[in-house]
Write a structure and sequence with these properties.
48% helix, four-stranded antiparallel β-sheet, alpha+beta, 3 helices, globular, 21% strand, Gyrase A, domain 2
């Protein structure tokens, strides 16, 4: 396994439990609705975009009642401010791309 592969594996292992839990907490704080961790779709960010992980926001819109961009931006801002592992985020339509430190 390459250095990048080992880094990614460690990042995924550490982040896999914390990230969905923090996203669920953020959603409740920001939108006043409880969602399950299973409602959060997380995937590797596509190579053509900046980021390491992507949250697919479209399934969350029925709970947030906001546009895809606003929902993603509010969650991204909260996570960026509350998780040391996140260095930045960007929003592309209904996709929240997260960059790690």
């Amino acid at each position: 396994m390459t250095i990048i592969g080992r880094w990614w594996k460690k990042f995924e292992d550490n982040f896999a439990t914390k990230f969905p839990e923090k996203t669920v907490a953020a959603f409740e704080i920001l939108f006043g609705k409880k969602i399950a961790a299973q409602d959060i779709q997380i995937q590797k960010t596509k190579k053509e975009f900046d980021g390491d992980l992507t949250i697919v926001v479209f399934p969350l819109l029925r709970y947030s009642g906001k546009s895809p961009e606003e929902t993603a931006d509010r969650i991204g801002r909260y996570l960026n401010e509350n998780l040391d592992e996140i260095s930045s985020y960007n929003v592309i339509k209904g996709f929240l791309n997260i960059s790690s430190t």
